[in-house]
Specification:
HIT family, subunit A, binds 2'-deoxyguanosine-5'-monophosphate, 19% helix, 119 residues
Length: 119
């Protein structure tokens, strides 16, 4: 499904290069950039270029897109030499999970020990 950009969405504006970001990787359908407020030595956000607000809004036909988000995160961890030491992938959905930007984004966190359970 074609997911058009949302004019007032921060991450859509990063995708369109209207807002600057420190870009790590790009494919035809995904963009990866450093989180502006890093919670670990490595903290990258992987977003679809089309606007999808939350995981609740994903369609079955977008399952492979989410899979490619995970694989891109894995590739970034490998490229930056923390795949073997370990990393965490997080998708926050809605208020109680702490979602603050309503454009689907996969957090890739690595470079330190990450406690469990999460806060
Ligand atoms: P979440 O809480 O899961 O919605 O995470 C949103 C993340 O987005 C949060 O870790 C901070 C990051 N963020 C917010 N504004 C910007 C921005 O303008 N640029 C970048 N690179 N990251 C941002």
């Amino acid at each position: 499904m074609d997911r058009p950009a949302k004019a007032d969405c921060l991450f859509c504006r990063i995708v369109k290069r209207e807002v600057p970001a420190d870009i790590v990787a790009e494919t035809d359908e995904l963009l990866a950039f450093h989180d502006v407020n890093p919670q670990a030595p490595h903290h990258v956000l992987i977003v679809p270029k089309g606007h999808i607000a939350t995981t609740n809004d994903l369609l079955a036909e977008e399952a492979a897109l989410v899979g490619r988000m995970v694989l891109l995160a894995r590739d970034i961890a490998e490229d930056h030499d923390f795949a073997q030491s370990g990393y965490r992938l997080v998708l926050n959905c809605n208020r109680q999970a702490g979602q603050s930007v309503y454009h689907l984004h996969l957090h890739l966190l690595g470079g330190r020990y990450l406690s469990w359970p999460p806060g």
